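I had to read the description of the data format several times before I understood it. Each protein is reduced to its one-letter sequence and a matching series of backbone shape codes. The format is easy to grasp once an entry is in front of the reader. For illustration, here is how one protein appears when written out as sequence plus structure tokens:
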Amino acid sequence: MKGKYSVKTLLITGISGFLGSHLALRLQSKYCILGLKRLGSNLWRFDGENNNIQFINDLELLKKYKIDYIIHTATNYGRNGESISQILEANIIFALQILEFAQKQGIKTFINCDTLQNPLASPYCLSKSHLSEYFKYFKTIKIINAKIEHMYGPKDDENKFICYLINNLMKDKNIELTKGEQMRDFVYIDDVISAFESIIYYVDSLDSMDTFEIGSGKQIKLRDFCEKILIMYNEIMKKPSNANLLFGLKEYNEFENMNIKADIRALKNMGWIPKTSIDDGIKQTILYYINNVNRGGVAQKYKIAFANISFFYLWIFTQDYQNSPTFSQDSYLRIYPQIATKILFRISPQISTKFDKQNLAYLQKVA
């Protein structure tokens, strides 16, 4: 099979996320990267990285670009208490808006990120399954579906399973788990990115609705995987964590898929193979989190706040503005509306939720 790089401009949705940021940083040497993000997205994953990526938070602003490919990584897993309607809004409605935009702009290729999980396992999985049913209505766009098994690696979200394990080991906190009999396919982020590189490289020879499963192609019992993380963590730290893996204390999901393995034959036919062993992947991930505690959490928020000490009081103010006896929210923010808005939304999207809709509308209006 032959292929060549023909893409000039690549749009990545969800660019501030785990997958989107890794894709952007790897692919920027080959393409002009446009990154679509939410207004309040935290771009901490790009800190310290050389990049010439253009970050954009409005679809309308993308009309001036000639976009060749879209990689749609934006998603809502529902891990932060989001409602089902919010998950559907993010995973179906927003995706359809991107597809409609692509159709109007004459963009020819849309690479969607999907999951191998049982659609009934969660609202997230079900929304991903339903989205694919709408693809047939976009006949002018070549849609490639990439079903990704459990990817992991540095800079992942703290509420993801592997990060959750490592963080609790670091805090010496016991970890309650199921019996761990599930067979899973864990794939390191570098291998996921190289799989996308192969898909893009050969996309001209692919058919619309082609589906690729991205994983290591190997299975490991979840219990063995967790124990491997514990053993390797203790070896790296030179002392054992006081945390215990408490298997059997949690029930399986009603629709738990007990046996998942990516079928990577289609990718192998394009010359792709996963190169990172599970031991190397776990080691690199543990080392990252040991050296970057709370990189995207509290430490990162304070780093940004301290960058401009004159606005440090704004940081304090936003934490509990309703109970403050000395600050007037409206008058204070009117003093420096533009910089206040930028700091609020850059420090953390979560801070913005402390303000009601009226205050949010005001902040966005004056920005």
